[in-house]
Amino acid sequence: MSLLRKLSNRLTLVWHAQLMAPEDAYLSYHDIRLTKSDVDSIRFDWLTDNAIAFWEEYLERERLPQYPRAKICLLRPSMAFMLANTPDPNTIRDALPDLTATTHIFLPVNDNNNVAQAEGGSHWSLLLVSSLDGCAFHYDSMSDDNVRYASNVANKLGVLLGKQLKFLSMRDSPQQENSSDCGVFVCMNMKHLLLNRLLQADSSARVSMSMGDKVINARKGRKEMLDTIENFRKEGERRRSGEIHRSVSPFRRSLKHGSNSPPRIGDEQSITSPSPSR
């Protein structure tokens, strides 16, 4: 593809994005429906619940399957919030994934304790629970700003696991330099701990949970997340274009580019379409 063609395609994508309202759907990726507002939060703002949920869905769908023996769970922000604000965690056991055989659980922790306020709170941190060791490792990019909320979630999760968890604040967690990058730090810490620590470890070896040797570049982290979304969006557009060309029967519902439905990546397309590039 020529440089001029690439530039033209890029400008078209930017133009389309500028015309979208904040609540308009930008990408449907398996169980996550990203809006333009979610994507804008990744570009330059405090990450929404849905933006973090997308990143977890991506790691779960694209990376974890490469390790079929792994028993690792990535709880979505909504699940962690529900756990944090439920007096008796046993009452929501059926609403959560089965954690019986799980070895490690990732939970994005938010400091919102107002159940009536959607997308509330002002800070994200990451909790990584090892049910094997009975430990809850807390990674906070603003010192111990979220320790009270994370400790509460760890205690509730311990009830579900049937064991008291030892809570450990990881003092060497990479620190953010502004007030809006906490969600990006959660996503990048999660990716590093999952892919470079837990999934690379020998089953008999002890794994260091320290992040002291890791530098998080929030700007690069945001770009990585946005590039991932744009790659899936382009792939979804390509698949939709193929569906339009194949829809020749007068009895089939016409598929149009003008549809309000976003580009979609989902299980129902995996049989006829290749996986998105990684």
UniProtKB/TrEMBL annotation:
GO terms for biological process: protein deneddylation; proteolysis. Residues 235-246 have a biased composition (Basic and acidic residues). Keywords: Hydrolase, Protease, Thiol protease. Residues 269-278 have a biased composition (Polar residues). GO terms for molecular function: cysteine-type peptidase activity; deNEDDylase activity. Residues 235-278 are annotated as: Disordered. Residues 25-193 form the Ubiquitin-like protease family profile domain. The keyword Transferase does not apply. It holds the Pfam family Peptidase_C48. Belongs to the peptidase C48 family. This is Cysteine proteinase. It comes from Aulographum hederae CBS 113979.
